[in-house]
Amino acid sequence: MPLFGKDGTTMLLAPELTGVAMVSIAWVFMYLAATAFVSATKRTPGRLEKQMVSGIRRMPCLSLPRRLCMLKIVLPRGSTGTIASMETCTSKLTRSSSRSGRTP
Amino acid sequence: MHEQANTFFVAVWAHAMIVSPETAEKLGWTMLALRGLYPITWALEGEHPMIRGPGSICVFLVSMPMSAISIYLLATSAAVLKNVDLRSMLADYEIGRYFSTFFGFDTIGCVVGYIAYLLANLIFTLLQPVVKATFSRVSNSHYDPNDKRTW
After folding, report:
1. Å from A45 to nearest chain B CA?
2. pLDDT range class, residue A59, cuts 50, 70, 90
3. What is the C-alpha to C-alpha distance for residues B124 and B126, in angstroms, rounded to an integer?
4. What ipTM was estimated for this complex?
5. Which residues of chain A are within 8 Å of residue B32 when distances are taken between CB atoms?
6. pTM for this structure?
7. Chain A residues with CB-CB distance to B49 below 8 A
């Protein structure tokens, strides 16, 4: 890999490797952008708790009490946020059950 | 992206310096595009009413093609270093000549890389119970690796 061009100018990379260098720089920029987005919005792609709760909510084979029981197991205990999310889940479950005509 | 960065940089730069910078650049952009699709597929899968949580589309359509490209880039680099001509090897087989009329060598190589990755995962899955048996059971009966509250 030549460090100097024919005309004496400094050349860090061979010209044919310019494209690969561009891809690498693009990767770094994309990584920084994704990290900044996640940090700014406080979002993570998949919080385990959220995934499990949404998964349980979508189990049509289970009755409402059983799903609520599973939610109690999944959700961590002793936090006000948890209680709020439990209540939200409960109301959503009740609504979805009443819409689909299932008896809870 | 942090996790995949090592594989990406090693594979792309090794291929560019050993085999072909043009191919490395082309496949590097492909890998970058696939990685860009990852959060989108994750979000769509996570919000989809019929799919239970994100996972399969992300893995099979985004992560595994990326890994297949990495395998292809590294395998061709290793082949050149070992003076093995994979193109002539492909042309030796009837099926290789047949597919070469429709697809390029790079495409076939990536598909082979995908199959290799699937087979490797299959072997790991089959071996998992054997490896698991060599570990002693956790004495704490409350410990559950899938439940953070017991960690």
Report:
1. 7
2. low
3. 5
4. 0.74
5. 23, 26-27, 30
6. 0.63
7. 58
